[in-house]
UniProtKB/TrEMBL annotation, chain A:
GO molecular function, one term: transmembrane transporter activity
Domain called ABC transmembrane type-1: residue spans: 84-377
A UniProt-annotated Pfam family: BPD_transp_1
Keywords from the named record: Amino-acid transport, Cell membrane, Membrane, Transmembrane, Transmembrane helix, Transport
Family statement: Belongs to the binding-protein-dependent transport system permease family. HisMQ subfamily.
GO terms of biological process kind: amino acid transport
Cell location: Cell membrane
Name of protein: General L-amino acid transport system permease protein
Region forming the signal peptide: none
Main location: membrane
Membrane protein topology class: Multi-pass membrane protein
TrEMBL record, chain B:
Residue ranges constituting the ABC transmembrane type-1 domain according to the UniProt record: 181-375
Pfam families listed in its UniProt record: BPD_transp_1
Cellular component GO terms, alphabetical: ATP-binding cassette (ABC) transporter complex
One GO MF term: transmembrane transporter activity
Entry similarity comment: Belongs to the binding-protein-dependent transport system permease family.
Membrane topology field: Multi-pass membrane protein
SUPFAM superfamilies for this protein: MetI-like (SSF161098)
Entry protein name: General L-amino acid transport system permease protein
InterPro entries, A to Z: AA_ABC_transptr_permease_3TM, ArtM/GltK/GlnP/TcyL/YhdX-like, MetI-like, MetI-like_sf
Subcellular location: Cell membrane
């Protein structure tokens, strides 16, 4: 008798996955249908239409902190753009400051100086173990807002002003010769790099000290003199803040909201970056440091040329995620009323009720910027990656 | 003689650690000046300028929010359950739990000794201390307690939730009234308890051979990790009612808890995936060779190993979750920080922002420091096993 053994359907290795996936898909689709039908019914009831047309209607609210022109008669799309620029501003400035501060604090934690080690350690412990939002609240409600009224401002030798309207710091303003200065400086810097490379090569080949650093500094100096000779004016004007009719004039005014969200972000994340830097430096094998000592390298040069380049390989992936966290945490600006992308989005939701579209818009913008940041950091990572020979 | 020896020892130490070179000496002086200035300002604030009476005046509202005053004993009772279980854990496991227990006992001792706490509070604090030691004794003594103490934790969560909400003859305290530190802890606990299994499922999904499941998990994890927590919380507040329709009414607290859980699950998934990746392929193959099916392979072979290796990382993420709970203040929930904001807005306590927020920060600091000590300890003890 020729009995063909067939595997039953529920034990067939080829069929089961298909059934499982189909079941999963069906569940997903059912859920989606349930959600969407509910949402559309709810929206119909309150009379809100889907679509992004509302972005063209007049916003009607004013935004004090802005980088691009905006008036209340502009539309919602423009308001969101203002918010996006504000978010990018606080995010980018925060990333730069927290990166630099974190690097130094991380190095400080490994310092041979006992006091430096303890102070940086205490900083990291305190900051890391308290929530960012509380730090921002302390900065905003207990530091920046209680500053006196602008008439009775606290000022530091008439250079930096603190008031509840904001903090004014000296800033530079461009004049008509700034462009020429920029061109000269760029040429000078490029030449300096070339000189440095050439002289360093000569130094390595001949074994004699050729002073590459002095050469390149000299080239930059020549460029500066040349630029001054051509334009006969300094590159930028220093503009000191002053008070004029209860408002700051000149200088650069950091609003209390911006100052507290920025300080909060870089203080918090620099502590995390410091820990990452410390771990990265400690991951460099001890033999490397002993080798530099045997070669007679100076301490600074050891750090700059041997330890940090190797530590960066370990540090960069983790620091990337910290930068991304900082960028995402910039949404906490809404808690102190700084008009970043998210808080403007929230205002628009309150005005129009278009919550679904705004939420989708927000999520996709934050996703895109996150992807861009991680792409840039990946490029940086590739640059520092171990070159296998 | 010995004094002189000690003195020269100190000088030697200072020479080595503070004034090793002239650059070092300058740095030391600079930092010393900065730290003296900061310390002076901080001490002056804490002991002279600050008016701390705002804290005792609002202690009840900071701790439990609008929770009905006559029913606060239920909060204490829930705390007792948790503290007792912790004591049992201490008796069974020893090690780092001892430090945790002592910290908790110390906190209750401080509450007991503070001058402004009420008699009822003092009695409850004493009960907590006694229960911790009773738990220790039981965990140490009885073997059946040793065997089943983990089940106690699992049961305690619903028991505590029911107790807080009220059951039977007890007065109903709606979760809208829960607030302050109580709400902070509840959101954190619910989030951790529910996001953990969800995260494991997502991690399994991401490493699954089923294409649809895998892509769903990848997209879910990456999208959630790419957007800020605040967006998810706002979406939970604004969109959840819309999507669920009229059939399901959820209050604010529940919505935020759902948002938190969905958010954190993605992060747990990535941590667990990291643990699964370091398990050698041989383990999978061996389990398969023994004839175990997928569920058995994962529950008895892969997950126990994977989870053990990521426990320190998971504790670290618990710290993050706990700190993140402060964000619910933005969606106008009355958690510890939300209440603090309200206290500050009270005209009766004008200008006491620093005091109130520092108090809140101190609570977070103590809890997070204890947890990070646990995490560090676990990291060290798990690395012993590897050598």
């Amino acid at each position: 008798m020729n009995r063909k053994t067939t595997t039953p359907l529920w034990k067939n290795k080829k069929v089961i996955p298909i059934i499982l996936q189909a079941a999963f898909l069906v569940v997903l689709i059912l859920l989606a249908v349930f959600f969407i039908s509910n949402a559309s019914r709810g929206l119909q009831k309150i009379g809100i239409k889907l679509g992004f047309d509302f972005l063209n209607s007049t916003a009607g609210f004013s935004i004090d902190d802005r980088l691009i022109d905006y008036t209340p008669s502009d539309n919602f799309g423009r308001a969101l753009l203002v918010g996006l620029f504000n978010t990018l501003k606080v995010g980018l400035v925060g990333i730069v400051i927290s990166g630099i501060l974190g690097l130094f604090i991380g190095i400080g934690r490994l310092s041979s100086n006992w006091l430096v080690k303890k102070i940086t350690g205490g900083y990291v412990e305190i900051i890391r173990n308290t929530p960012l939002l509380i730090q921002i609240f302390i900065l905003y409600f207990a530091v920046f807002l209680p500053f006196p009224h602008i008439e009775r401002n606290i000022n530091f030798k008439n250079i930096i002003f603190f008031s509840n309207r904001g903090t004014a710091i000296p800033w530079f303003t461009a004049n008509q010769s700034s462009g020429i200065w920029l061109i000269f400086l760029l040429i000078g810097l490029a030449a300096a790099v070339v000189f440095w490379k050439v002289m360093l090569k000569k130094q390595v080949e001949s074994g004699k000290s050729m002073h590459p650093m002095l050469w390149s500094l000299g080239v930059v100096l020549i460029a500066v003199i040349a630029a001054y000779a051509v334009t006969s004016s300094p590159p930028v004007q220093l503009s000191l803040p002053e008070i004029n009719k209860l408002a700051f004039k000149g200088g650069y005014v950091l609003s209390s909201e911006f100052a507290s969200i920025l300080c909060g972000l870089f203080i918090y994340h620099s502590a995390f970056i410091a820990e990452i830097v410390r771990a990265g430096i400690m991951a460099v094998p001890k033999g490397q440091i002993e080798a530099t000592k045997a070669l007679g390298m100076k301490k600074g040069a050891t750090m700059r040329l041997v330890i940090l380049p190797q530590a960066f390989r370990v540090i960069i992936p983790s620091v990337t995620s910290q930068f991304l966290n900082l960028f995402k945490n910039s949404t906490l600006a809404i808690a102190v009323g700084y008009t970043d992308l998210f808080s403007i989005g929230n205002t628009i939701i309150n005005q129009t009720g278009q919550s679904i579209q705004i939420m989708i818009l927000m999520a996709s913008i934050y996703l895109i910027v996150s992807l861009v940041i991680s792409f840039l950091m990946n490029c940086f990572n590739n640059y520092y990656k171990l070159v296998e020979r | 003689m010995s004094f002189l020896q000690q003195k020269s020892k100190i000088i030697d130490w200072m020479k080595k650690n503070l004034f090793g070179s002239w650059i070092n000496a300058i740095i030391t002086c600079l930092f010393a000046i900065i730290i003296i200035f900061i310390a002076k300002a901080v001490l002056k604030f804490i002991f002279v300028t600050a008016k701390w009476d705002v804290i005792p005046a609002n202690l009840k509202i900071l701790m439990v929010g609008q929770y009905t005053a006559s029913e606060v004993w239920r909060v204490w009772l829930s705390l007792s359950v948790a503290v007792f279980l912790l004591g049992v854990l201490w008796g069974v496991k020893r090690g780092v739990i001892k430090t945790v227990s002592f910290t908790i006992v110390a906190i209750f001792a401080i509450i007991l000794l503070l001058p402004f706490t009420s008699i009822a509070t003092k009695i409850w604090a004493a009960v907590q201390i006694l229960l911790t030691f009773a738990g220790f004794w039981m965990g140490n003594k009885f073997s059946f307690v040793k065997r089943y103490h983990l089940a106690g934790w699992l049961i305690s969560v619903p028991v505590i939730l029911i107790l807080l909400n009220g059951v039977g003859n007890m007065k109903d305290v709606n979760s809208n009234l829960w607030g302050g530190f109580l709400l902070t802890v509840l959101i954190a606990v619910v989030d951790i308890v529910f996001s953990f299994p969800l995260g494991i499922l997502l991690a399994l999904g991401r490493r699954s051979k089923l294409v649809v499941v895998r892509w769903f998990s990848i997209i879910y994890i990456e999208v959630i990790r790419g957007v800020p927590l605040i967006t998810v919380l706002f979406a939970a507040q604004l969109l959840l009612p819309l999507f669920l329709g009229n059939g399901l009414e959820l209050n604010n607290v529940l919505r935020v808890m759902i948002g938190f859980t969905l958010f954190n699950a993605a992060y747990v998934a990535e941590t667990v995936r990291g643990g699964m990746q370091i398990i050698p392929q041989g383990q999978y193959e061996a389990a398969q060779a023994l004839g175990l099916n997928y569920v058995q392979r994962m529950t008895f072979v892969i997950m126990p190993q994977a989870l053990r290796s990521v426990v320190p990382a998971l504790v670290g993420s618990v710290i993050e979750v706990f700190k993140d709970t402060s964000l619910v203040a933005i969606v106008s929930l009355m958690d510890l920080l939300g209440i603090a904001k309200r206290v500050v807005a009270n005209p009766q306590f004008l200008g006491r922002q620093m005091e109130v927020f520092l108090f809140v920060a101190a609570i977070f600091f103590v809890i997070c420091t204890v947890m990070s000590k646990i995490s560090k300890h676990m990291e060290i003890s798990s690395s012993y096993g590897k050598n």
